[in-house]
Amino acid sequence: MTTLHIRHAITDFDTWASAFSRFAGARRDAGVRAHRVQRPVDDPAYVVIDLDFDTTDAAESFLGFLRTNVWGVPANSPGLGGTPETMILEPAGV
């Protein structure tokens, strides 16, 4: 299992959540097996998203989609505050 880990500031959670929901089909089609959206207890203007994939290639491909078709198009990313930080994670086997 590979996880695409995304962190970013938001301007309004409800606006951001609505935009996130609009891309449910794209996540499914890209092979997202599960997702988690979390918010820091001390910063409601920030979200952390984990998207789980079967392969690293699938996670990298979806990250490219996000950069080009979501984050790169302001109309597709309302509520986003700044540039997302990402990393692709694999289990450490510990």
Outline the low-pLDDT stretches. Answer: none
Note the gap between the termini: 14 Å
Q: Determine the mean pLDDT.
A: 94
Q: What's the story with the biggest beta sheet?
A: 4 strands, antiparallel
Index terms:
94 residues; alpha+beta; 34% strand
Describe the structure.
With 94 residues, the protein is α+β, with helices and mostly antiparallel strands. Helix content is 33%, strand content 34%. A hairpin with a 7-residue loop joins strand 2 (34-38) and strand 3. The longest helix is centred in the last third of the chain and has 15 residues, at 56-70. The protein starts with a strand and ends in a 5-residue tail after the last strand.
Summarize the structure.
Helices cover 33% and strands 34% of the residues. By secondary structure, it is α+β, with helices and mostly antiparallel strands.
